[in-house]
Amino acid sequence: xxxxxxxxxxxxxxxxxxxxxxLGFKDDRSRNIYAETIVxxxxxxxxxxxxxxxxxxxxxxxxxxxxxxxxxxxxxTKLFAGMISVMWPLVMLYAFSYMxxxxxxxxxxxFYVMTYxxxxxxxxxxxxxxxxxxxxxxxxxxxxxxxxxxxxxSLYAGRKYAAYTxxxxxxxxxxxxxxxxxxxxxxxxxGGNLGSGAAAGMLLTAYVFGFFGxxxxxxxxxxxxxxxxASAAPTPVTALLHAVAVVNAGxxxxxxxxxxxxxxxxxxxxxxxxxxxxxAEVTLVFAAVMxxxxxxxxxxxxxxxxxxxxxxxxxxxxxxxxGFAAGMTHMLFHGIIxxxxxxxxxxxxxxxxxxxxxxxxxxxxxxxxxxxxxxxxALSLTGIPLxxxxxxxxxxxxxxxxxxxxxxxAGMAALIIAAFLCAMYTLTVSVRAFFPMEGKDRYxxxxxxxxxxxxxxxxxxxxxxVNILFGIFxxxxxxxxxxxxxxx
Length: 488
What we know:
By secondary structure, the chain is mainly α. The protein has 19 helices and 2 strands.
């Protein structure tokens, strides 16, 4: 009976989402009501668990000694599950409007709802085996979403996404086996759970395999290239899955591997820590440069995501509680910011049929609400005070200074360089939208407004407001995450 508490929010969207296909709804409205009901009910159940559950571990199935499917709840679970349970219902509303008139809509929403349950399985996983099972399932269930349009670009993106993410999971499997054998069946415990028996060199090698394997979904260099290509997917997929759920699942898995399986005592000062920390620092600068060069609107934001995911990994790999808290803070705040930016980009592409940066010139006067909130998101992502992006980036800089190592200081410099580049590749879009050069306004002769409808604007406005609120009043969130990072 206790296992049903965790199974319910996982199975409800998986079974309910799959049922969309055989039910064969005759119209979009009835299907939309059904899908939104499933998603909202799942979110209600999740929040009942987060607020009322005792967090005690529950074993669902054991298929051999040391390998079992178990669930539990701790502070990291609350962060990840809480994020996606609030974001999913809002972006579903956006998707209803965005996908209106598209082909294979029933199939799209079936997989879209199913993905919610699989992601929750990752959030509630108690051990490496359970996390790995749902991690692989997440790759499989999202491939059809990436390749949804089934044109050449989408099919290529789907194949590339599959190759990278499934290949990355193959790398991580070595770490899963090693930590299960030498770490209390792989059960998560704050500070690590590895016992004696394996050579230190072998364990550190396993960690590096796990970091880059799980880090493939987090788009760490050189395993990042799938993410910009995956922007060929519909914007609701790009926003929710490739800016929050899928990529944050990679960061979440690295957090579990680092802080709840190996632990700072084993990793601190080793070649494994230095290699992985250096990889994160290279990625965050390299991807920012690539974002500045990119001329496609969504691919520019995708490269920005690659950069910001490594902000989180930088915090995690500092191996101090300040860095861990800062990494979790940026995971939450970047999700809010990037969700808003992707939804704005999607609204522009949907309403105008254009996709490139030069095609934005002058559109802000025709889409004032969309690009006003885009600008708020851009300011936040750059790290301007009074927005939540400043809070998390400031915390990361403080954590780097407190670490006091050469690589930590190099990371601080990388953060500042990447923030400067971020201002250039995000705010120039706003300048083009509202202040086009003379004779370059592409929309001067377009009659009427191009503003998105209310169903698309509602999530954009909500995420924009939350961005400001967390920037002005970050205290409760920071307090919770600092306690979580300290294992309290």
